[in-house]
Amino acid sequence: MSLKQQASKGSEIDERLSALVTNANAVRAIASAVESTLGPKGLDTMLVDRFGEVVITNDGVTILSMMEANHPAAKMVINIAKSQQEEIGDGTTTATVMAGALVGAGVEHVSKGVPVVRVIEGLKMAVKRAQQLIEEQSIPVNDIKDPRLRQVALVAGREHEDIADLVVEAAVLIGEEKLKDKTFKLADTVLAEEGAENHVFMGVIIDKERMNKQMPKELENSPVLVIDDALEPEEIEEEALGTESGFARYLELQEEFCSNIQKIIDMGIKLVLVDRGVDDTAEEMLTDAGVMVLQRVANKELRKAAEHCGAKPIKRTGLKKSPPDLSKYLGKAEKVISEEKLEQVWIMGGSGKPMATVLVGAATSEVVGERSRIAKDAAAAVQAAVRGGIVPGGGALELYVAREVEKMREGIKGMTAFGIDCVVESLKRPVSQIISNAGFNPLEKIADINAAQVEQNKVSLALNCDTGEIADMYELGVVDPALVKIHALKAAGEIAEAILRIDTIIKMRDEDEKKRESRKFEE
Questions:
Q1: Is residue 72 predicted with pLDDT exceeding 80?
Q2: Res 11 pLDDT > 90
């Protein structure tokens, strides 16, 4: 082959790889933005918007969600990381770092002549095997009061003991059955408020104040009415008001409305939650009767309060029902407290579905967001542990799984083995970064950990990031939910496969250009 032919062939290969290399660089850039946050010695990241607003966080999904990313491959990584957060609530940083390693190793093999399809084939086989190995090492949590759950919360909650205690207390209140319900998210029970005291209780918080200060501050054993509408008279068109019959209808509606409000009072209802506004007359009548009214309650909070109290939301037209029929829509709360300092109302001890609220206090507004994120991560991790068991943390399990996955090479012929190598490298990447963030040499320490695990036949050995010594993660209390690791690996594999399959990048025409060409064709 002549030099000219060799150059031409090399140019063709370069063009074929250009999309892959471009995408791989974007993925690795995203991974490098969050990898420094991994582990107990991970650092914080400062995010600054165009107005100079600052967010300082150690939370991977927050960094990914708020960072500016224009490259399509980078956006793909961020979207899959968000889906990991939605599904499990934790592990987004690990998934992103592993994805960066998978894609990087895959591109390296492809650039040396390994077909992409062979890399993907080996990658999928190895990811499936790795997931099986993690499941095999998982220890089930059979008791909601298992002390290891607190350790899970402590690790996910970045060593914040007060937050770990709050989350575990909430988990105990909620119960194992509810925690295993896939439609329920313990993280959704978390609220952080500036100036609040740490508190866990069975109930919900409405982020609204009572309509006026003359309404009662506290209620006990209160019937609850939830109105998914405005508490106002039915409207009548302005044009109709100009007629005698229209005005008579208006007076009739006003009288009917006042009658309905009096019915609420006579039935002994003491708490009324309203989706929209409340009429002045209704406010005055209910205030005089000692009824607490909350108006313009957020729909999500309204639904949660209704479920907790056992109330059925009703429209304003439903207030026409007879007292016996209307009583079927009422809920009940053991205690209702207006927290004036926090501008909230706490509804506790509802007769409906059990719901816990984790109120996390924060000294200043600057740390409210971060305290909330930490508590939500801890809550998600605890729920994942209850659902899928626990495994040793600190990267111990990943190194064991990497060695076992590497053994697959012996039974694989051809270039598919290179895809297995990609997964082995990606499994080592998070623990390597944890060790690096702690100030130690990853190559040296990973070799020491592997040797110790094999010699002692103990999967739970990894690095003590404080001392630099090899230690048993179970004994140190460094435990992670198995589901977090399984889903992080799954997400990383999906990202890598999607990126590696992209052979060409073509810019789409914008809609304006399409319309111009369409008009030109019609002419």
A1: no
A2: no
In sequence order, which residues have a C-beta less than 8 Å from that of residue 112 and are 6 or more positions away? Answer: none
Q: Quick one: how far is CA 135 from the chain centroid?
A: 22
Q: Which residue has the tokens 């000219």?
A: 4
Has residue 50 got a pLDDT over 80?
no
One domain, residues 423 and 327: no
User: Are 125 and 21 found together in one domain?
Assistant: yes
Rounded to whole angstroms, the Cα distance separating 57 from 437 reads 16
DSSP-derived secondary structure for 173-187: HH-HHHHT-TT--GG
The predicted-structure confidence for 386-440, as pLDDT tens digits, reads as follows 999 999 999 999 999 999 999 998 888 888 899 999 999 999 998 999 999 889 9
Determine which of 183-192, 233-242, 474-483 has the lowest per-residue pLDDT on average.
233-242
Residues 6 or more apart from 190 whose CB is under 8 A from it? 167, 358, 360, 372, 375, 376, 379
Computed over every residue of the chain, the mean pLDDT equals 84
First to last CA, the chain: 53
Task: State mean pLDDT over 270-291.
Answer: 92
482-500 helix and 365-388 helix, angle to the nearest 10 degrees? 100
- Check whether residue 395 and residue 342 sit in a common domain: no
The answer to whether residue 487 sits within a structural domain is: yes
Tokens of 521: 């064709």
Predicted TM-score (pTM) of the model is 0.76
Q: Are residues 224 and 339 in the same domain?
A: yes
- Regarding whether 222 and 342 lie in a shared domain, the answer is yes
Distance CA 447, CA 453 (A): 10
Q: Does 517 map to a domain?
A: no
Q: Which domain holds residue 81?
A: 11-139+390-500
Are both 129 and 63 inside the same structural domain?
yes
Query: Which helix (H) or strand (E) covers residue 100, if one does?
Result: helix 92-111
Q: Give the whole-angstrom CA distance, residue 218 versus residue 292.
A: 9
Q: Would residue 186 count as lying in a domain?
A: no
Instruction: Name the 3-class secondary structure at 203.
Output: strand
Tell me: pLDDT of 450 over 80: yes
Residues 221 and 302 in one domain: yes
Helix, strand, coil percentages (3-state) for the chain, rounded to 5, are 60, 15, 30
322 and 226 in a single domain? The answer is yes
Q: How many domains does the chain have?
A: 2
